[in-house]
Amino acid sequence: MDSLEPTPARQFAALDLGSNSFHMVVAQESENGLLTVVDRLKQSVRLAAGLDEDGSLSEEAEARALACLQVFGERLSDLPPNQVRAVGTNTLRKAKDVIGFLDRARDALGHRVDVISGREEARLIYRGVVRDVDSPGCMLVMDIGGGSTELIVGEGSEPTQLDSLYMGCVSWTKRFFPGGVITKTRMDDAILAARREMQSVVRAYRKAGWQQAVGSSGTIVAIEGILQAKGYAEIDAEGLAWLRKQLVKAGDVEDVSLEGLSENRRPVIAGGVAILSALMQGLRIRKMQATSNALREGVLL
């Protein structure tokens, strides 16, 4: 009698089409239903850098995006649609001809792309982060993306407050550090503008009663890496002040050379540092830890 072939383990894929980078995570389901990550892919696409003031996406930015999706699609060619979810964030929320782009994206990827709201993005980020952090109770989570910044307060697995702000490392760098030039005046202006952007939510987040602040995703993870390479244990006001001085001292993004800073992150680090500085000042955060878990892990779950 022939033995029955074991059923192959199912794989699930989550894709985050962010304003700075596109991420894909593939996980395999075990017999007890737990997911184990078996593959990660990331490409720096800088979609937000290709968004004109009228909301048009440049041909170059779209070409970078579609080329990346084609590569991701090759990895996903064996997976059925109900085991793949791809989500677009701030830049695709703002883009004018998003329907046309989404059609071309589906052709390149082989799967549909859903553009999610800022609040839904925040909810999914929180789900991803909470799986990686031992929280003593109420927790503040923030994620600085390429085109937006998400703020979330939650306790346990449930978020209680969600907000999405229109500032990100790509858009802020493009707006306040044109040509890659970094000066103290430009850095101060970028921080002040970020403080204004968050003005409507500051009071609620200060009063939320969180005991721990966690930063999610690329920008904050990169800043933590730079500060730890310098000897700081975590992200704090002193470390951020040192980092701002190093950026201003370099004067040009091309001349920024910091241990722990990757080539992909270097062009947009100034905008990210300005936004994080404003958030920590405005929300009176003394220290913060970072996690690489983010939107894609939340989508996967």
Describe, in short, the structure shown.
The protein has helices at 59-75, 90-94, 98-109, 118-130, 169-176, 184-197, 199-206, 217-230, 237-250, 269-282, 295-300; strands at 11-17, 21-29, 35-44, 84-88, 113-115, 138-144, 149-155, 158-165, 212-216, 235-236, 287-291.
SSE ordering: EEEHEHHEHEEEHHHEHEHHEH
* Physical arrangement of strands within the biggest beta sheet: 8-7-6-9-11-10
Largest sheet: 6 strands, mixed
Low-pLDDT residue intervals, each spanning 5 or more residues: none
Structural class: alpha/beta
What Rg, in angstroms, do the CA atoms define? 20 Å
For the secondary structure, the number of strands is: 11
Which term fits the overall shape? globular
Helix content: 40-55%
**Distance between the ends:** 40 Å
- Tell me the β content: 15-25%
Instruction: Figure out the total of helices.
Output: 11
Mean pLDDT: 92
Structure description:
The structure is a single chain. 46% of the residues are buried. Helix content is 42%, strand content 23%. A hairpin with a 4-residue loop joins β6 and β7 (149-155). It has helices at residues 59-75, 90-94, 98-109, 118-130, 169-176, 184-197, 199-206, 217-230, 237-250, 269-282, 295-300, and strands at residues 11-17, 21-29, 35-44, 84-88, 113-115, 138-144, 149-155, 158-165, 212-216, 235-236, 287-291. It has 11 helices and 11 strands. With 301 residues, the chain is an alpha/beta fold. The chain is globular and about 55 Å long. It has a 6-stranded mixed β-sheet, with helices on both faces. Strands 3-2-1-4-5 form a 5-stranded mixed β-sheet.
